[in-house]
């Protein structure tokens, strides 16, 4: 009976010692680090558009540039053993220009090639992630889940789009037809007016006695030549005008003689 007592006491002491050692080991054990959720982006990186940020286009970080598409690249700086790596990123964008986030994009590792959203998580020097979006969006915020203890991550660079985004295509502008310039007007040479000949007005020279009287009436004397009455052929023929003058002179002489005769008779009678 006494042996049993000793055996029980030794067993109890051994069990107590093992329990104490287990507790001490548990106290010195390093707990596992769970993934940190909700690590924010550096607030100095947002808000921004891809066109307004530092540009760099790389084939292993989304490629580009693309027509109508922006590429965003995020980085988790520091030693990956301490800061960890990305497991997912949720990026929030303003797509309508009102300043408020209205579109969230989740970036995860192992995205299929040619995926519609075009995102992936890769390791290039540090843990990085990229996403391809419609051009013109504004990044207003982002959070990430990581495996380490980093307190934030950064937007390292972008690859802005080329060309016009398809969602913001403006209607074609109607171009006004070019204005046709009228040709210069040709000025006609001045018309030369020939000088007008002035017909001198006849001056009445009656007072000076130089005016030639204009014959009035129609002459009654015949200009028919009268045959010569003489027998000789050596004399000049008498024209009708000369014969008429002689006849008139004769009549006048006869008349004058008759008048003188009648006056003489009256004197004698008286």
Could you explain the architecture of this structure?
This protein is of the alpha+beta class and 270 residues long. The protein has a domain at 36-162. 23% of the residues lie in helices and 22% in strands. The chain contains three helices and nine strands. The strands form two sheets. Strands 1, 2, 4, 5 and 8 form a five-stranded antiparallel β-sheet that branches. A four-stranded antiparallel β-sheet has the order 6-7-3-9, with no helix packed on it. Strand 6 (119-124) and strand 7 form a beta hairpin. The longest helix has 30 residues, at 240-269. The radius of gyration is 73 Å and the shape is rod-shaped. The N and C termini lie far apart (252 Å).
Helix/sheet category: alpha+beta
Bin the strand percentage.
15-25%
Report the uncertain regions. Answer: 17-33, 202-234
Q: What is the count of DSSP helices, taking H or I runs of 4+ residues?
A: 3
Please trace the helix and strand order, writing H or E for each element: HEEEHEEEEEEH
> What is Rg?
73 Å
What coarse outline follows from CA principal-axis ratios? rod-shaped
* Main pleated sheet: 5 strands, antiparallel
Arithmetic mean of pLDDT: 72
Number of strands: 9
